[in-house]
TrEMBL record:
UniProt entry tagged with the keyword Hydrolase: yes
Stretches assigned to the AB hydrolase-1 domain: 33-263
GO molecular function, one term: hydrolase activity
Organism: Rhizobium quercicola
The protein's name: Alpha/beta hydrolase
Keywords (A to Z) from UniProt: Hydrolase
Domain of life, source organism: Bacteria
Pfam families: Abhydrolase_1
Length: 279
């Protein structure tokens, strides 16, 4: 086992057809590695340290930056399909034959498409705060996010305070704790996402929301679907839809939680995810 934590994990890079992709890796052991794909606008520093460290207790965890995001080179793709293609190339570039995949929000879109395109690479799949192609409200993520982002600017708060959590006392407390955890890493932090890449990702999300539904019945891997019961970014009904359409899916919905339900309930989520991956 590699004795380190997410806040201290070194940033690495791998060259894929002339483009450098950055990632961080920690944990170890003989279990199948877990590759993580993150949300719209996220860099490596937006992965929740408690979730990464918790999952790395029993396995290798690899967190990845999309093309054109943070310190990764190239130009951010305009489609989820291109992001999935990059993800497949990344897994192969690391010499990994089989992996488990965790996708949050946009990362969940990527994880679905990746699994459908390269099913032989994926053993188990965890989809959190996400939804299917053509899902309810996904094409409107930009419109739904506009006011919370503006509110964040006006109140000098990270917009995730408003976007990922409910406005209840529990939600606000969880938001403060989560945003505090994102600041724990002091050295070797990733570059912030450029506005151009941020907007290109939004176009990819809108296109996913307008895309024709995929045949999720073709996903034969065991799948864990998790979300909060009040997700306004990717409405919670999409999680129910995923669990209904994927043959081997289990669904977990957290009470009084929004888009970032797995961050609010990180201890329960890590325990459930580890049990799912170990089964």
């Amino acid at each position: 086992m590699i004795k380190t934590s997410w806040k201290d994990a070194p940033t690495k890079s791998v060259d894929i057809a002339g483009t450098s992709f950055v990632y961080r890796q920690l944990g170890g052991g003989s279990e199948v590695p877990l590759v993580m794909f993150n949300h719209w606008g996220a860099t490596l520093d937006n992965f929740d340290p408690r979730i990464v460290d918790g999952l790395a207790a029993t396995r290798t965890v690899i967190a990845y930056n999309y093309r054109g995001v943070g310190a990764s080179g190239g130009k951010a793709p305009l489609t989820v399909g291109e992001m999935a293609d990059d993800g497949i190339a990344f897994i192969r570039a690391l010499g990994l034959g089989t992996v488990d995949v965790l996708g949050f929000s946009l990362g969940g879109f990527v994880a679905q498409d990746l699994t459908l395109k390269a099913p032989h690479l994926v053993r188990k799949l965890i989809l959190t705060g996400t939804g299917p192609a053509g899902g309810v409200g996904i094409s409107k993520v930009g419109a739904v996010s506009r006011i919370p982002i503006l509110k964040g600017l006006l109140t000098f708060r990270d917009p995730k305070y408003y976007l990922f959590f409910t406005s209840t006392a529990n939600g606000r407390s969880a938001a403060r704790a989560f945003l505090g955890r994102l600041k724990e890493r002091k050295a070797d932090r990733d570059k912030p996402i450029a506005m151009g890449a941020f907007l290109r990702q939004l176009k990819a999300i809108k296109a996913w929301g307008l895309q024709a539904p995929q045949n999720l019945g073709a996903i034969h891997q065991p799948v864990l679907v998790a979300n909060g019961d009040q997700d306004k970014m990717v409405p919670t009904v999409n999680s129910t839809d995923l669990a209904r359409r994927i043959p081997k899916a289990d669904l977990v919905i957290y009470d009084d939680a929004g888009h970032g339900g797995i961050f609010q309930y990180h201890e329960a989520f890590v325990a459930r995810a580890l049990a799912f991956l170990a089964a």
